[in-house]
Design a protein that fits this description.
By secondary structure, this protein is an all-beta fold. It has 1 helix and 13 strands, in the order βββββββββββββα. A 6-stranded antiparallel sheet has the order 1-2-10-7-12-5, with no helix packed on it. Strands 9-8-11-6-13 form a 5-stranded antiparallel sheet, with no helix packed on it. It has a two-stranded antiparallel ribbon with strand order 3-4. The longest helix is centred in the last third of the chain and has 4 residues.
């Protein structure tokens, strides 16, 4: 696997070693010895149509989660924001295009808000979490918060968000 450093410490883009031939391809998408000691305990899969934005989500306290995310089908713009107060990159964002073609994974440590926008007709998104989901510890930031000014590559008037995501507060309140 190839590990691509990002401008944010501990945040990595990972490209698995893909074996392709006339039959298709094979790659090992996860092996616990290769992912910086993370112990993932929960897998989630979502399917979303074009122009859907999911996020920006995070878990707090004892239920904070690191995530290993990848796209099984389609193309997404994946977005993370460093919310670790003691980090030198506190409040900075990082973006990556994840797709079934590039097979890249984003390894996101605890303390980040995470979201994605679907750029293809639909996307199937897979993520591993190193902690269990807790509704009581769920948090979020409005994806169109002007403080972060994220270009989701989808015009705001075409973006489709859940009611919960529309109603997340702005960050800088």
């Amino acid at each position: 696997m190839e590990i691509e450093l990002t401008p944010i410490p501990d945040l990595y883009l990972i490209k698995p070693r893909v074996h392709e031939d006339e039959r298709g391809f094979f790659y090992e998408s996860y092996h616990h010895t290769n992912y910086f000691g993370y112990n993932f305990v929960q897998d989630n899969v979502s399917k979303s149509a074009k122009n859907i934005i999911r996020g920006l989500h995070f878990q707090t306290g004892d239920f904070a989660q690191a995530k290993l995310v990848q796209v099984i089908h389609g193309i997404v713009l994946d977005v993370v924001i460093d919310l670790r107060p003691k980090s030198p990159t506190f409040e900075q964002s990082c973006f990556a295009i994840l797709s079934d073609e590039n097979k890249k994974q984003f390894l996101i440590p605890r303390g980040f808000a995470h979201g994605f926008a679907v750029l293809s007709d639909y996307a199937i998104f897979h993520y591993k979490c190193d902690n269990y989901y807790s509704k009581e510890h769920e948090g979020g930031i409005n994806p169109f918060d002007p403080y972060f000014n994220i270009d989701w590559e989808i015009p705001m008037e075409h973006a489709i968000l859940s009611e919960k995501d529309k109603n997340w507060p702005s960050y800088a309140i």
